[in-house]
Specification:
The complex is a heterodimer of chains A (332) and B (97).
Chain A lengths: L1 E2 L15 H13 L11 E7 L7 E11 L2 E9 L4 H13 L9 E2 L2 E2 L15 E4 L5 E3 L2 H6 L1 E4 L9 E4 H13 L6 E10 L6 E10 L4 E2 L3 E4 L1 H14 L4 E9 L1 H7 L4 H5 L10 H10 L6 E6 L7 E8 L2 E5 L1 E4 L7
Parallel strand pairs in A: 8-11, 10-12, 10-19, 15-16
Antiparallel strand pairs in A: 1-5, 2-3, 3-4, 3-6, 9-19, 11-12, 11-15, 13-14, 16-17, 17-18
Chain B lengths: L8 E7 L6 E8 L4 H11 L13 E6 L4 E2 L6 H4 L4 E12 L2
Parallel strand pairs in B: 1-5
Antiparallel strand pairs in B: 1-2, 3-4, 3-5
The chains are: A alpha+beta (332), B alpha+beta (97).
């Protein structure tokens, strides 16, 4: 990292959880029919060298997924993915007085050969096997014809359809638990459209999360929560799979505690499209596949309950649009 | 290299909450505890060991055959049979942090 005048501030090893980016890349190629659902043979993060100054300077990096018997697939990403990490490092440099408060800084990304990992002959022999995730065949156009949009749809995102009834139940549950976080597990189906080769998700129902502990600022999912959801899913017997979770943000309670004015609440970043690091951690631990989404029910003092959806975009959870289906959809 | 099918080791199937990441373990040592097994497989399954604040995440293994959560201190050889299916279920917070 460098100060505005070009002085070198220091070099810091990047700490990053690559798993969400791997999942994003995996879904990217699944959606294009270039990777089988259970066909990946391991992933690598590789540097993309800067064309002018060359190794070890990077202009980006790529996530490469090997496929047994086929050419690997790879997706390139830019250096801006390290911007948040650079900001964190800059904050530490400010505390250490290496950088002045508010001073601009720049950074370069360099890559070095990772040390070879020792052979693991004594540990567990563990390998990924075919999951029981079912992908059904259906027409995307058929779904689109029956759907309305919620928030701006980015055509690059996996299409996600949500039954209107799911949102109504979430709204009702949020109102009943006003002032306390509540939530549920999203279930439904993954679909494959043979004509476009596209994969899309349909959230058909929500299972209210039981055995949770909710406060105004936190909702704890326990092992008993997941076990109860499993039991409900099996009881339904419709071949559905997990597609994420929803939970409420009782913004009105947060604002009340801080005596925020209604005007400030309307422009508060917490009032809409806010997905915390904790919220993201639940996705990471329970619903890591990139087709899974998180929905937040925003309970504010100035409007009815609204909904924001978040999905894995280039390895981070970001707000995204979705489609709402009326009652009676059967996906055919 | 461990041997599959010996009395000292058993084969298991372990999945995440969603059931969409499933792994086979060929050589789970029967003398080890369930807690040791969980700690060893987490990284290999790509599941996080820590929450967003860096605190250790707690997982319980649910044994599908019996429909119960296993105690971390239970011995694999006492609690499990070959080809049992386990689901790793975390205790985790969504929230403002």
């Amino acid at each position: 990292m460098f100060a505005e005048n070009g002085t070198e501030l220091g070099t810091v090893a990047v700490k990053r959880d690559w798993e969400p980016l791997y999942e994003f890349t995996r879904l990217h190629f699944l959606r294009r029919g270039e990777l089988a659902l259970d066909g990946d043979g391991g992933a690598s993060v590789l540097p993309v060298w800067d064309g002018s100054v060359g190794e070890p300077y990077c202009r980006g990096y790529r996530m490469e997924i090997a496929q047994p018997g086929r050419r690997p697939v790879a997706l390139e990403f830019p250096n801006r993915h390290f911007r948040d990490f650079a900001r964190t490092v800059a904050s530490a440099f400010v505390e250490e007085r290496r950088l002045a408060e508010g001073e601009r800084f720049t950074y370069l990304v360099v890559a070095q050969q990772a040390p070879l990992e020792p052979r693991d002959d004594g540990g567990l022999q563990i390998k990924s096997i075919a999951s029981r995730t079912l992908i059904r065949e259906g027409s995307l156009d058929g779904f689109l014809a029956r759907a309305t949009t919620h928030d701006a749809i980015d055509q690059g995102n996996l299409p996600v359809f949500v039954a209107a009834e799911v949102l109504e139940q979430a709204r009702s549950q949020t109102r009943c638990q006003e002032g306390t976080e509540t939530g549920g597990i999203l279930i439904g189906s993954l679909w494959h459209d043979a004509r476009s080769c596209e994969i899309f998700a349909e959230i058909t129902a929500q299972i209210p999360a039981e055995h949770t502990a909710g406060t105004a600022v936190k909702l704890t999912f326990t092992p008993q929560t997941w076990a109860a959801a499993d039991a409900a899913l099996r009881l339904r017997g419709r071949g559905e799979t997990y597609l994420g979770y929803w939970h409420s943000h009782p913004v009105r309670a947060w604002c009340k505690a801080k005596n925020c004015t209604l005007e400030s609440q309307r422009v508060c970043r917490l009032a809409r499209d806010f997905f915390s690091a904790d919220d993201e951690a639940v996705m990471r631990a329970a619903f890591p596949r990139a087709w899974c989404v998180g929905i937040v029910a925003n309970d504010t003092a100035f409007a009815d309950v609204t909904f924001s959806m978040f999905g894995n975009l280039e390895g981070t959870m970001q707000a995204r649009g979705f489609y709402i289906l009326g009652e009676g959809s059967n996906g055919t | 290299m461990g041997k599959t099918g010996t009395a000292a080791e058993i084969e298991l199937e372990i999945s995440d909450v969603s059931g969409q990441k499933v792994f086979s373990v060929a050589n789970a040592p029967v003398a080890n505890t369930v807690g040791e097994l969980i700690q060893e497989v987490l990284g290999k399954m790509g599941l996080p060991r820590q929450d967003s604040g860096g605190a250790p995440l707690s997982y319980q293994a649910r044994l599908e055959r019996e429909g119960r959560h296993l105690h971390a201190s239970e011995r694999i050889g006492d609690a499990l049979e070959s080809r049992d299916r386990l689901t790793l279920q975390p205790n985790i917070d969504a929230g403002l942090a």
